[in-house]
Specification:
Elements lengths: L1 E6 L2 H16 L3 E6 L10 H7 L6 E2 L7 H19 L3 E5 L3 H12 L3 E5 L11 H11 L3 E4 L2 H9 L7 E3 L3 H9 L20 E4 L3 H4 L2 H12 L5 E4 L2 H10 L7 E4 L4 H10 L2 E4 L2 H9 L4 E3 L7 H5 L3 E3 L4 H7 L19 H13 L12
Parallel strand pairs: 1-2, 1-4, 2-3, 4-5, 5-6, 6-7, 8-9, 8-11, 9-10, 11-12, 12-13
Helix pairs in contact: 1-7, 1-15, 3-4, 4-5, 9-14
Bound molecules: uridine-diphosphate-N-acetylglucosamine and uridine-5'-diphosphate.
């Protein structure tokens, strides 16, 4: 069976790296479509190079702009690809606009849709990602839930049990596979301030970057950190910082976004992580680091319940207090995300679906 995979943003390249490798190993034919949502070399090319992801057969070049315009243009072009390629299945990841466009294109053409990272919920419908995930899950035929919490969310929304597969998290597969290759960023050794330990921070959520009060408050919280802070800055955040003429505090070293291997090294070697990223919250746990979540809610609730991650929000004092956390008493070996074989399981299920005439579109009673 031919599978068209739609990707477009940084976290999707990382997830696809694990699954595309497994597909190649199991002999499934994959056609990769890159929507172009992320397009800078350090937001896109670097992942293909470092992680050995095959070059996409289609590069749609649709990045930037408002949500509706971006999603609409992606949808139109993905539909063209699907009409040309006539795949047996479309595969999408996560919760970006590229995910939604791929999902709608498949559903409208009655092509089976599989969603990796199904069932995540923040229960905050003001987040663009929440809309993208809910819609994608409800037009999917095969839902790959990373955790039991995700499965329970889907069941509560009336999605039939037989369509849901709890496979673990493909980001754990990637973290394990590339761990050995993690490498120190070139600029690190030249900065003597960092030798006594550091905080790793990422900020890119629209709710944080697009609200000057929140962004200022995060910077104020970081300024209280007893350790220097490394902040690989997402392009969205760069634009907002420039617009607001914000000056990051002196203990914060701002760098360009780093490659996956450098990020893994920073995660492995830091003392603590502060982030509003979904993926980085989990990677903190994979690398056994306490994590300060710069949000009021999270989709990865099991990490907060286990005490590994804390929801600090963006209040200056709360961030400052949380940044003094240590690993003492934290339990990182609870296996929330499977055993590192999620991608293999995804591909086995996809391959088995290819031998059936049509994936079931039925829903359970809601
Ligand atoms: C997107 C996803 C978000 C995900 C994040 C991962 C949506 C709605 N949001 O957010 O869920 O967590 O990716 O990083 O899909 N830009 C560049 N160069 C690039 C990419 C972006 O300059 O390579 C700038 C552009 O000004 C663009 C802005 O960043 O307008 C925002 O990019 P966009 O893809 O719309 O959203 P993200 O904030 O990256
Ligand atoms: N990441 C990276 N370089 C960076 C920042 C993040 O390689 O400078 C990786 C990170 O290790 C994780 C993924 O990008 O694997 C998370 O993506 P992001 O935070 O952009 O999106 P989210 O997970 O929030 O959707």
């Amino acid at each position: 069976m031919k599978i068209v995979t739609v990707i477009g943003a940084r976290p999707q390249f990382i997830k696809a790296a694990a699954v595309s490798r497994a597909m190649a190993r199991q002999g499934l034919e994959e056609v990769l479509v890159h929507t172009g949502q992320h397009y800078d070399a350090d937001m896109s090319d670097v992942f293909f190079e470092q992680m050995g992801i095959p070059r996409p057969q289609y590069e749609l070049g649709v990045g930037g702009g408002r949500h509706g315009a971006m999603t609409g243009r992606q949808l139109e072009r993905i539909e063209d690809v699907l009409l040309t390629e006539k795949p047996g299945m479309v595969l999408v990841y996560g919760d970006t606009n590229s995910t939604l466009a791929g999902a709608l294109a498949a559903a409208k053409l009655h092509i089976g849709l599989a969603h990796v990272e199904a069932g995540l919920r923040s229960f905050n419908r003001r987040m663009p990602e929440e809309i993208n995930r809910v819609v994608t899950d409800h037009v999917s035929n095969i839902l790959f839930a990373p955790t039991r919490t995700a499965r329970d969310n889907l069941s509560r929304e009336g999605i039939a049990e037989e369509m849901i597969h709890v496979v673990g998290d493909v980001m754990l597969d990637a973290a394990l596979f590339y761990a050995e290759r993690a490498r120190m960023p070139g600029w690190f050794a030249g900065d003597s301030r960092l030798s006594g330990g550091f905080v790793l921070c990422t900020i890119h959520r629209a709710e944080n970057t697009d609200d000057p009060k929140r962004l200022r408050s995060i910077f104020a919280g970081l300024s209280a950190s007893p350790l220097p802070v490394i902040l690989p800055m997402h392009p969205r955040t760069k634009v907002k910082v420039a617009e607001l003429e914000l000056v990051p505090p002196p203990n914060v070293r701002v760098v360009d976004p780093v490659g996956y291997l450098e990020m893994a090294w920073l995660e492995k070697n830091c003392q603590i992580i502060a982030t509003d990223s979904g993926g980085v919250q989990k990677e903190a746990y994979f690398h056994r680091k306490p994590c300060v979540v710069l949000r009021e809610e999270t989709e990865w609730t099991e990490l907060v319940e286990a005490g590994c991650n804390v929801l600090a929000g963006v209040e200056e004092g709360a961030i400052a207090a949380a940044l003094t956390r240590s690993t003492q008493g934290l339990e990182f070996a609870q296996g929330f995300y499977g055993g590192g074989d999620a991608a293999e399981r995804v591909v086995e299920i996809l391959a088995a679906a290819g031998t059936r005439p049509e994936p079931s579109p039925s829903r359970g009673a809601s």
